[in-house]
Fold these 4 entries.
Entry 1:
Amino acid sequence: MTDATIILDDDREAGFGDYLALLKPRVMSLVVFTAFAGLVVAPGGIHPFLGFFAVLCIAIGGGASGALNMWYDADIDRVMKRTKDRPIPAGRIAPEEALGLGLVLSGFAVVMLGLATTWAAAALLAFTIFFYAVVYTIWLKRATPQNIVIGGAAGAFPPMIGWAAVTGDVSLSSVLMFLLIFMWTPPHFWSLALFMNSDYDKAKVPMLTVTHGKRATRTHILVYTVILALTAAALFVTPIAGWAYLAVFLVMNGLFLAGAVKLYRRDEAEAEADGYRAERAFFKLSLVYTFLHFMALMADKALFAFGIGGPF
């Protein structure tokens, strides 16, 4: 964290919504959903109450990571349009308060997950929090234009944690679910950066669009989208993918690849003239990409249970 001073607004007392915002609920929603998917598709089973509690602990751990991230990044959040009204830069919550909340919730989530399910899941959750708060936020976010690639690992761990909460181990299936999110993250965020570039430039965050330009970013989006499609295809070698996954894979990866090619071919003057319409559309498509893939895996688990279809 830099020396930027956060001035508390005495006229605006922090409310429940401010503390909730510290936990990054929109990011947490993806964490909860993919963790739940990993738990559902894992072989064997878990008591519904324990499953609910496991997902709750993973959500709290994800929220704790968000609070630690906001504590450290308060200085750059102040100068970025989309983040300047967050509770810390807006002066509603003190940085030290966010730090304390993040640490307490981290410890609680890890210990309770271990006691309720398996210590393998707890260890993965602890590593995820450490990776996001320390490796990504403190170390690499401001040091390399590959920050999004590396930081994507933190958001990719939840399905592995959910899987480990049931099985107590890590398998090829859970690793490939991790890789699906890991490879999805760069094109997702880089497409956002194409039309939000001024924010990152102003905050001196070395996003790829800032350090290498938009032309290079478009090339990277295409390359990572191709790798993402291959990663999604690799799930067919595991016992968790069936016909529902195949249908989603064909449609979504076809659309995603077509979108990435379109972005690659776009001229910057053309993109700016139409308000980055194609880039915004690609970003919106990316929001449903992982959702539909994991929904399909859960649908296949249900179909398998009724004797419909089967692993490829």
Note: The chain is about 75% helix and 0% strand.
Entry 2:
Amino acid sequence: MLFGNRILWHASLLAAGVSLASGLLEKPKVDGIPQYVLDYAPVCYLHHQELYFPSDLQAHLDNTTPQDDNFKKIDGAPSPLSLTNLNKLNDFAEGGKKVYLTSNDDITKDPAWLKGAAPDCDGKASDIIAVAVIVVDKGDDNIDAFFQYFYSYNWGGVVLKAFQAGNHVGDWEQNMIRFEKGVPKYVWFSQHGNGQAFAYDVLEKDGQRFVNYIANGSHANYAVSGSHDHTIPELNLGKGILMDYTDGPKEGGKLWDPLQNAYFYKFSNSTGKPTFTSSEPGKYPTEWLDFLGKWGDKQYPKSDKRQQEILGGITAKFVGGPTGPIDKQLDRKEVCPDNGNPCILRHILSP
């Protein structure tokens, strides 16, 4: 079946509420991971205009150099960087917290490695590893399952129809599913601010798997397609200064099955020390998950000719890169991160 026809067929079935995952996407089995985590995993749609796709973790390391808080190359850093030695950077710059994986290229030239890999018609983004599936045992047969998505570049969008804002190297986004005795109860979608959390039962489904719409450029995750105003977190007024845009198969959105580009892990903080283990002992490297630094450039100063401050310095054209999975509150108590904002558990599907 031709790709275009397949997408149209997929869109018509999804709109009709027909189960698709069992026929379109494989359901893998992974040693050490409960099967229900895989059965209820997200099915993603990237925007049809997306230019910066899921990115290979090792390729990102190959194209960056560790720098400190003063934009200086870190002497003595492991070279070449790999997924098995990235944690060694925690020996530098305040325990790794002020280490920046800085692009070797001028990012204004849009080097090819920033663009990642577009998914094929079967929802697989080439043979890259761009996802960490992390299972956290909460006790009493309850678990949280995190699906951490990596992109080498975040395009922040346009403010006031005139200025680019919020671009940065490296981008970690995520969904989290909270299971109670093997049953999915809530799903959290990472976005600007505190994200959004919905009861699993109200979400759009592809078979048993919920649908996750990924915003063009910013890669924020949403439960519905369309326009999303995030000027005021938790309040979508439809139109605003800061907008995200998502779409699905009817609009040409690109199907992505993150399970096909993933490593699988377990996480525990029971001893007070965050610990990652491969779901199958020795199969997946864990050292990179311990890295405490930033997965991109430090925010360029105002003096840098590439930089442009916006709205009186409230934001800038280029901002700093993010921390990795270890800094995403994997042992959280609530469905949402604990950042002082209320965790609203929505039981009605809405933008």
Note: Confidence is low (pLDDT under 50) at residues 1-9, 11-23.
Entry 3:
Amino acid sequence: MASQKSRSTSLSTLAILALGLALCIQGTLGSIACENLNKDSCAFAVSSSGKRCVLEKHVRRTGEEVYTCRSSEIEADRLKDWIETDQCIEACGLDRTALGISSDSLLESRFVQKLCSSKCYDSCPNIVDLYFNLAAGEGVYLPKLCQAQGKIKRRGMSEIKSSGYVAPGPESGPTKPVKFTIAPAMAPYRI
């Protein structure tokens, strides 16, 4: 019994120390400007202003590929000064050298499976926030997609493939397509 209580206290102390170390490291980085990040830390980072960083590739006339990091117009919800951890990149099935920000990966069932896993969804708020907003832009509610991932995978994927336009049926006559829009949604906030 005493051994179990001691082990619990040790784990609590270790967790507090780890959190303190993470905050110290983040604090020592100071302000993050996307333009100052290199290829290995740009993708999935968030600047001090709350703008998401994107990696871009340019090819010079000589054929040499040059990578640059810049601020996008996409803002992160409640996050600033954030460089994503390697653990989250791996857990969520992402690639540090990803170029730009796109919802295309939400069409890949293997990626969605990793994104919806507890290792990613419950532990990586920056990535969940990003893909929550990308899914919302496609008219899909990420928690519902994750729920569908476990039940009816094909149906969840077909919801994303829809452009949001409804085409008239063959017998409906000369009607115009209807565009459905949704209000921006906030990602579930977890730390």
Note: DSSP finds seven helices and four strands in the chain.
Entry 4:
Amino acid sequence: MVDIVGERVKAGDAIVDYEDKVFPDHQAEPGQKAFVFYHCVPFESSASLVNLLTATRILRKGFETHFVMFGPGSLAAAATRGFPKVGDEGFPGNMNYNTLLQRFMDEGGHAYACRFSAAALYGMREIDMMEGVKPINPKDVLDAAITAWKEHALTLNTWTM
């Protein structure tokens, strides 16, 4: 039998050095922008939640932040989520996307969802999107990327299949 070394951890114990930070804590300079392009399936990976948390962190660093949802990412903007009724948390974390996206918008972030992917792929109407989310033409996804490039904006792109 192998000898186990160490003591069992308990709630509140740190198992890593979470205070050690390697890179500077950069803040935006006036007028700087950021675009987060999000093509992820909500509830199927941590990338979905991480993108919303990261977009909010970028916003809090002072960047004018744009969150562009397309493909399956447009589902994150669903205002019809919940069970048994809209807004009810059918399981722990069921409303995380709505809560985080709403917080992002409440703090001044701009959110966009592709109306093509919403409607053609998932049957979601524009009226089914969260209030404050701007429905966009599928051609706007590329033009948002070009806008980001022309404005020398910080860009993050996440894709899951």
Note: The chain has a mean pLDDT of 94.
